[in-house]
Amino acid sequence: MVYAIMGCSPCHHPSSSLQSAKSPRQNLSIPLDHYSDGPRKSVSQTKEIKVSRSNYVLMSSARLSDTYQIDEKIGEGSTYLGGFGNVYRATHKHLGVQRAIKSLTRGAVPKAQRKQLLYEVDMLKEMVRPRQDHPNILKIYEVIKDKEYYHVVTELLTGGELFDRISDGIRYSEEKIAYYMQQILSAVHYCHEKRIIHRDLKPENLIFENDSENSLLKVIDFGASCTYDENSTEVVGTAYYIAPEILKSRHYDEKCDVWSCGVILYMLLCRR
């Protein structure tokens, strides 16, 4: 089975938009002759370039067919965001690399689901820093919006869920479990550095990049996530993995993700 982008989340989220999250912009002054062999111009002849996160996750209204060749349909239904939309394997026409594209019909997606999608896109965009995105978090490349669809383009993951491998009774050595947990904890630490709490960490949301035993694990489904700035008392998550403080509807913080990681570690060690 091929896994692509975002999954279902168990909760309702605040409204969002396709605009990138607000953040300070860095102004770069680059001499106009920077790439020429001629003499340097004066400082007054510099060109100012504004750099922000939106420069690294493309948001466009271009035609999808201009950039991507759709190869095959690889998914639909509740596995891919509540049954609305399809997931395709596609090839970038200029780069020759494969991507996953989730296409959602704008008119067919209920308002609450559309808000959830846009919220998750915003969270994934927050994970992107220039040349410094995390190897264990699903990468989003661009969002293409036309009159009928939202097309969300991400990397293609083909290795299946960690949950499936546990369910198949695969016996992992402690060394291999440590290898997997290091990747999970590294991704979670990165999220927390970005002041983002995932809130729904579970084996179903950990996808292998490919079928190999040493494949990288990727954290997906940020639809239930929130930021540190939100007053978190909402009960969000999945049974068995949810932290006690969330169930008690108390104010909680990023440590709820650490609890979920502990449950995942237990499942890997005990194969349950």
Structure keywords:
single chain, 272 residues, alpha+beta, Phosphorylase Kinase, domain 1, Transferase(Phosphotransferase), domain 1, 2 domains, six-stranded mixed β-sheet, two-stranded antiparallel sheet, 6 helices, 12 strands, 24% helix, 22% strand, globular
What does the model show?
It is a single chain. This protein starts with 25 loop residues before the first strand and ends with a helix. Helix 4 runs antiparallel to helix 6. It folds into 2 domains: 58-154, Phosphorylase Kinase, domain 1 (2-Layer Sandwich); 162-270, Transferase(Phosphotransferase) domain 1 (Transferase(Phosphotransferase), domain 1, Orthogonal Bundle), CATH 1.10.510.10. The chain has helices spanning 64-67, 111-126, 162-167, 174-193, 244-247, 255-270; strands at residues 26-31, 46-51, 58-60, 68-76, 86-92, 98-105, 140-145, 149-154, 196-197, 206-208, 217-219, 226-227. With 272 residues, the chain is α+β, with helices and mostly antiparallel strands. 32% of the residues are buried. The chain has 6 helices and 12 strands. A hairpin with a 3-residue loop joins strand 7 and strand 8 (149-154). The strands form 4 sheets. Strands 3-7-8-6-5-4 form a 6-stranded mixed sheet. Strands 1-2 form a two-stranded antiparallel sheet. Strands 9-12 form a two-stranded antiparallel ribbon.
